[in-house]
Amino acid sequence: MPAENLIEKLLSLKGEVASVPSPADEKELESVRIKYLGKKGVLSILSQEMRSVPADQKPEAGKLLQEIRSTLEGLVGSAEIEIKRNKVRREIEGEFFDTTLPSIQPEFGSAHPISAVMDEITDIFSGMGFQVEEGPETESDLYNFEKLNFPPEHPARDMQDTFHLLDVEKILRTHTSPVQVRAMEKYGPPLAVIAPGKVYRCDADVTHSPMFHQIEGFVIDKNITMGDLKGTLKAFATRLYGADVKVRLRPSFFPFVEPGAEMDVSCVICGGAGCRVCKQSGWLEILGAGMIHPNVLKASGIDPDQWGGFAFGLGIERIAMLKYGVDDIRLFFENDMRFLRQFKGGV
Ligand code: DAH
Questions:
Q1: Is the distance from the beta carbon of residue 290 to the nearest atom of ligand 1 less than 6 Å?
Q2: Is the entire prediction scored with pTM above 0.85?
Q3: What percent of the chain has pLDDT over 70?
């Protein structure tokens, strides 16, 4: 085939293609595609003719062919987008969209019951003017025991209760009481501190977990008496359990207080009448307390002749178990969603 012929054909095709209207629907689009760009389409046929074009005319013919191809591809490509867009538009217009339908609610998490109880108790004491302090969970024997007036051979230091860390001269704190000493050394008197946190003991059964939570509280000031201790703890119990709760202090022993006591509240299950939970006594022990021992004040750099104080410590898990009627402490730490979901919606 003579070369002029191909160039002429391409020029007339170029003119034709320039005036092809944009396809309005998928059917039109498909026929344009097949006619010009298909395997047996016009472009394909003309490209085959390229072979017989003399070398000096090849560049012009090739350029024309390329121009026509990109014009067609542009036409087809933008028509494709436009057709799709129109289709979606028609679908939306035809659809009934009920704006009053409730949306799908995302599932919100909630505070773990232990965190919730810890926050509640911390809030009660913050409201009375206590400042919140935290101490390290890995402690030294000095802060966990020695400065708290534990005699060197005290059974609480026994390997059975205390987790000792290998290689370092540290232990996991067995109680939050060391925060007393740390806060006294850091701030000096007067002071009112509440210290929530994790503690560790080598112990495990239905009421003991190797990791559990305590809140320590203490006040240092002039002329502090046992009456201040009892009044503060009574106010706390009333906030936690309601105005009807009764409290009593029983003498007890802790090395870091003198005198020491345990506080009972009237049974939150039976109200004091006697039941299985309070072992028919009508009372439940909820915390240890006492007047801070002069040796502890001295070890924390405070003059016991000028200052005095009271302290108390309570276990969060025990309070949470009583509050929610949970009889196995391990449930708190298994993270079974069926258990945790029951605390949703506030505790
Ligand atoms: N630290 C004690 C314990 O873990 C609890 C305790 C008892 C704390 C009496 C005190 C207190 O501050 O005065 O068993």
A1: yes
A2: no
A3: 97
